[in-house]
Specification:
It is a single chain. The protein is of the alpha/beta class. It has 2 domains: 3-89, MurE/MurF, N-terminal domain (Udp-n-acetylmuramoylalanyl-d-glutamate--2,6- Diaminopimelate Ligase, Chain: A, domain 1, 3-Layer(aba) Sandwich), CATH 3.40.1390.10; 98-138, no CATH class. 25% of the residues lie in helices and 21% in strands. The protein has helices at residues 5-12, 47-50, 78-89, 128-138, and strands at residues 3-4, 15-17, 23-24, 26-27, 37-40, 57-60, 71-74, 98-99, 104-105, 116-117, 122-123. The protein has a 5-stranded mixed β-sheet, with helices on one face. Strand 5 (37-40), helix 2 (47-50) and strand 6 (57-60) form a beta-alpha-beta unit. The protein is elongated, with a radius of gyration of 21 Å.
Length: 140
């Protein structure tokens, strides 16, 4: 979901060095980032990649700001902030509760009313294997 650097900085308490109106819509590594990408630098060994990045912005520590060629979101923990911001840019899909008519569910299976059971899912008897299968299908 596209968002501005200003919104990310405010939401996550980072100092922004750069234009707050710049919009980012994806996450990427320093080498693979494009002009609408948000990237991060947390490993000092990758500092060489920072100078060549094409990212719109990079999340990094204060001591790395002076070598950043792009907008910077300053963080004490760039990796953690990257993960949090990635969830904003790429939110998990939501599924409506319900059971697809093609699903086969054993009468002894325990299925929460809030579960989303997709097409052609099989849920066997109430035993450990069925529970594992159920969670594997729902959370993949």
């Amino acid at each position: 979901m596209p968002t501005t650097l200003g919104e990310l900085a405010k939401r996550f308490g980072c100092e922004l060095i750069g234009d707050s109106d710049v919009v980012v819509d994806n996450i990427a590594g320093l080498q693979n980032a494009g002009p609408a990408s948000l990237s991060f630098l947390s490993n000092p060994a990758l500092k060489k990649q920072l100078s060549a990045t094409q990212a719109a912005a990079v999340i990094l520590r204060a001591e790395d700001v002076e070598v950043s060629p792009v907008a910077s979101l300053v963080s004490d923990n760039p990796y953690a902030h990257y993960a949090l911001m990635a969830a904003v840019l790429h939110p998990a899909p939501s599924y409506a509760p319900g059971v697809d008519p093609s699903a086969v569910i054993s009468p002894t299976a325990k299925v929460a009313g809030s579960a989303h059971i997709a097409a052609h899912v099989f849920i066997g008897d109430d035993d450990d294997r069925s529970i594992v299968l159920f969670f594997t299908l729902i959370f993949q």
